[in-house]
Amino acid sequence: MSGPTQSASDLYRSMRERVYGLALQMLGDPGEAEDAVQATFLQVFRYLPRFRGEASVETWVYRIAIRESGLRAKKRGAGPRPMPAAEPAARTGVDRDEADRALAALQGLSEEHRTVLSLLLLREIPVRQVAEILRVAEGTVWSRAHAARQKLREALERETITPAGGR
Amino acid sequence: MNATGLDHTEFEILLEKRIRGEDSPEERASLDHHLAGCAECRRALEDAVEATRAVRARLAAATARVDWARMERGLRAELDGMRATQRVWVWCSIAAPLLVLGVNLGMVAPILGWRWAVNSAATMAGVMACFGLAQWARMRSMARRLETEASSVDAAWAAELRRRRWRVRFAEVYSVAFLLALLVTPMVAQHLWPVMTFLPIATFFVVHVFLPSGRRRRRLYTEGLIDMDTLRSRKSTEQIERELGR
Description:
The complex is a heterodimer of chains A (about 170) and B (about 250).
Chain A: H1 8-27, H2 30-47, H3 57-76, H4 89-92, H5 96-107, H6 111-121, H7 127-134, H8 138-161, H9 163-166
Helix pairs in contact in A: 1-2, 1-3, 1-6, 2-3, 3-7, 6-8
Chain B: H1 8-20, H2 25-37, H3 39-64, H4 68-112, H5 114-146, H6 157-188, H7 192-222, H8 228-232, H9 237-244
């Protein structure tokens, strides 16, 4: 994504899907995720002139996206949030229920755990960059991801045992 | 522990690397060896791989449904609003010295005499004109960058930083000059003693406390570590930094 001809609009176009994917995982609601993406890029365009270039621009954008999503999640209040109906399973070719359950369970995790799993689920972000975004060592990313996945598994198991209380 | 010398938790961390496909050949061999004898890890890996695949597909489907054109229109509208606000500030900073000049010549001169009024007006107008010019330069630069066809953000960033540093320094210099002018103006009217006491204290505070603290605070914001509410809060920069563990 680097290069002397890179423009702010190119940055927006190259990152919007990833930022949306991140926000959607952090918030669990497509509408809120869209708002978070818009707020993120407004901040990016506004503060780009003051960006010091101490981290990569992508890292900076992800940090802003995490902050925007985190603020929105806090305003909304903690707790699982069901995803609205998605594409029919036949079109996506995956078990939609499983994905929705996992995304809903993700909303029940702490912000720290939700953030690390959300970043790792975006395959375009290397772990080195995840560590840079979170300002931790790579080893910490792995151990945090492991702890987060355990919590997620526990939440999904609880939901399986008591489906009525799950969502 | 097992023959590889790793405990179960370490294998679970290797599972995370495997899910991302970021395990080294040694780690891969070690994990494969462990998986051959650990049904729990095998099941955990299968579940995690399946869940990851499902969530990624779900995200891809959700992303495909986003109306990006609508979002881009919204962004452009917001940016237009920001540019309009900036234009107001540019005009305000140009109008301010003219206003000061007018007030001095029109209202103060008849009371205190023309010489005082002209000296005062010239000092104030000069400093404020510089201030306005600097604001204009900064806003113009920002407005240009707000254009969707802004200049580069990564490779050409170093040159931009060099240019910007000078501009920021310049702006800081007249922020101080502006404050000094406010303080020096009464000297023309021969009210020297309070100024001579207050001036060094104020200058020291502005140069060594206020400006650096504000810079550090703005930097925390632009780095994405604090939000706008915290930036504008009454909390001291030191307190914010302590909370962030910096």
